[in-house]
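Appendix B. Chain record.
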Amino acid sequence: MSTELEPEVEYNRVGIAAYVRLVRENRNFRRLWLAQIVSEMGDWFYSLAIYNLLLEMTGRASSVALALMLQVLPQTLMGATAGVVNDRVRRKLVMITSDLARMTIVLCMLFVRSPGMVWLVYPLLLLETMMVAFFEPARTSVIPNICRPEDAIVANTLASSTWSVNLMLGASIGGLVAALLGRNAVFVLNGMSFLVSAWLIRGMKFNEPHAEAAEPLRWRHLVDVSPILEGVRYVRRDARLLAMVFVKSGLLMMGPSWVLFTVMGKRDFPVHWHNLSPERGAILGMSLLLGARGVGTLIGPLLTARWAGHDERRLRFSILGGFALAAVGYALLGRSATLLTASLSTALAHVGGSVIWVFSTTLLQLNTEDKFRGRVFAAELGCAMFVLAAGAWLAGAAMDAGMTPRMVATFTGLLMGGPAVAWLLAQRLWRVAPEGLPAEPG
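Structure tokens predicted for this chain:
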């Protein structure tokens, strides 16, 4: 644990004071949080520019879907290796290395200046995502090392709220920057954001027991399946933990959402403003839908965390409610006739989605041992990204085959009912615990 932690104090309520206290008193979390702000803001600028570039130069929704797959699928393929590395190497070093590599990769996007060079986007996205596969499990895994257990929900809610604000600001401002200054300015800004993030993380000071107890990482460890099998056995011994690992995989709207917002911004809800060109109006339309998503993800955990607090039963119940809201929101998006109603429906859906993401992360942090945390979170992220990639590809292919974006949105909402039922049925696992583990009373 971090040496700067104060003596144990009981914090029963999750309110504004808890967030302020965490940022003010915990230097390590403060630096990690600031690193998140600068790098994610750049990411939203960047994603907006990439998707618009591909749609403009290829004219196909499937090109955006392919880009999204390359941004997420490697997180599934690299998950096992990333988990092993994160459970043997200091996670601080993993994050810094990933940031510096991503800075270099993003700046290489400056070479894409014509339709003939658009092929370069795909390998660069693939390489960048490989770095994300190492960074994200490391960032999530260090939270219990730098925060008290009772602060886990506070830290995760603040991280989610920050992601949401970054989405709102990044999508909105990024659309203006791309429209006024061009895409190259966006790529440079995002590259510099990773450099600032690496510098902030470098200043963190905390203990990492998993690295101190592990033998040094060797090349053979990257192809050794025994740590992976050990992690699988660890998760399988408790069906409750296994269920928590797959919660994020139930967010079936994640993949289609990116393709839907890009295509809807161009075909259904472009912004017509003065002498703005159609291409730039499409960027602004897409940015407003992304901004609405950010509003939803901001509101969700902030409201429900006050009620759920540190009660694991309430955390689980909130996840169930999140699935219901996501289903209703995307069904309504499919019926939206104006940009305003589409934005409100998007916000509603992602109120639910953000609750699912934040609360499932908190449950895993509270129920996973430190030495297994890297593998567990890498596996969880890998499964979720596989579902995201598959959903994006299917949505893009469906729209290229003739389905309207509204039809795809409605169908996505209907599909969200499946994970809701699965999570409801999984709640009985907490009443019948595996051998050697405590059952939940009542």
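Further analysis of this model is presented in Appendix C.
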